[in-house]
Write a structure and sequence with these properties.
GO terms for molecular function: hydrolase activity, acting on carbon-nitrogen (but not peptide) bonds, in linear amides; metal ion binding. It is built from twelve helices and two strands. The protein is mainly alpha-helical. It has a single domain, classed as Rhopdopsin 7-helix transmembrane proteins (Up-down Bundle), CATH 1.20.1070. A hairpin with an 8-residue loop joins strand 1 and strand 2. Helix 2 runs antiparallel to helix 4 and helix 4 runs antiparallel to helix 5.
Length: 268
């Protein structure tokens, strides 16, 4: 990559929001600051999942850190509209998806070729991610559309798990998560494909709403698959879906509580 790809405006992608209208230093102001949830949410999720990370899967914290990187990369891209910023934004989304899938996809969904081996599955996902990373440099203008297709396998896996889940709270979170994902995709498509219409309505900010809605959809999806993972592979830890700040308020922040006892603690 040459130095010109670091320059402002070097990306072939320019979203609907007008450029440099609020600040001379930030190209798309609303699209930049709307990434704030990616920066504020994950540190709190690291706290809520401290027991999960200690007793079940320490790599859960990698997912939260990658979400922060997604937010920083997206903010950099929309602030500069540089090709480097675009690629960082898109590739961090790819890698957070692949990391979540590799670490928490229930083994029963593995293709037969992997013989229920998570090590083989993770290796194949890593190879796929490396290849996809290389291909992303070929035609950067279509990367965003390619990434949207990742929602298809994620939604399918979620559907398969919700069909057999016995906890009604988990089921309801899955339904809400899917609804918000659809709303986010609608915002993305409208901003990308119907910019002229929204500009005439003086509301070219749907991509900013996409940032907010996709975070509100993405982190509960990670929570759900973390729940499916431990329920499938470590049922003795008795995972429970809970909400902060009040467990009886299902519009709060979801997390997975691990109900370990002294014997289980000593075994760790």
């Amino acid at each position: 990559m040459t130095w010109e790809h670091l320059e402002r405006g070097s990306s072939p992608v320019d979203w609907c929001e007008g450029n440099y209208l609020v600040s001379p230093d930030i190209a798309e102001f609303v699209n930049t600051i709307s990434n704030i949830l990616f920066l504020l949410g994950p540190p709190f999720l690291i706290y809520l999942f401290k027991d999960y990370g200690r007793f079940i899967q320490p790599a859960i914290h990698l997912i939260w850190v990658l979400l922060i990187v997604v937010g920083l990369s997206s903010a950099y891209f929309h602030a500069t509209l540089s090709l480097l910023g675009q690629l960082l934004d898109e590739l961090t989304i790819l890698w957070v998806f692949m990391a979540t899938l590799s670490l928490f996809c229930p083994r029963r969904h593995f293709p037969r070729i992997f013989k229920r081996s998570r090590k083989r599955f993770c290796l194949s996902m890593t190879v796929f991610s490396i290849v996809a990373t290389g291909l992303s440099f070929c035609h950067p203008a279509i990367n965003a559309f390619a990434l949207m297709f990742l929602a298809i396998p994620a939604t399918y896996l979620l559907y398969k798990e919700l069909k057999i889940v016995q906890d009604e709270r988990v089921y309801r979170l899955g339904v809400r998560n899917t609804t918000i994902l659809i709303m986010a995709i609608v915002c993305w498509i409208n901003d990308r494909m119907f910019c002229d219409t929204w500009s005439r309505l003086n509301f070219p900010y749907l991509h900013g709403f996409w940032h907010i809605l996709i975070f509100i959809s993405a982190y509960p999806a990670c929570v759900l698959f973390a729940y499916f993972f431990v329920n499938d592979e470590r049922p003795e830890s008795r995972p429970t879906l809970k909400y902060w700040p009040r467990n009886d308020f299902e519009l709060g922040i979801p997390y997975v509580s691990i109900n370990y006892d002294k014997k289980f603690d000593d075994a760790i």
